[in-house]
Structure of Nucleoplasmin-like domain-containing protein:
Amino acid sequence: MQFFTLTITPGEPYLSSVPRFSRLELTRAVIQPQPEGEATLYFINKAQHYPLCFLSTNGIQQHPIDLIFSEQSELKFAVQGTAHITIIGTLSDQHSALEMDQPEQGTDFLEQLLAQLNQQELDQLQ
């Protein structure tokens, strides 16, 4: 898993795609302190602009976002206003994420061993 940041400048849309076999999870949008001002972050899908948050250097300076993109998903973001916005998240290998979801080998053996030990303790109490 890698830490991911992306700073978007007003008037310069960001266009890219998630690398193959990867997963991108975006968690937070943060306004940059310089230049001062305010800005709206947009996600662009099929030529439609969807506002994600409005940030201001003199007001709300960060906002949680919860966006997850799978491999080869198109990423299109834009900022409208006078300030830059940075998006923060993580980029991970999908194979690693799948492996983490799978139970470790040997779990069944450990469960059986614990059950036997518990049974032995119960037998000794009787």
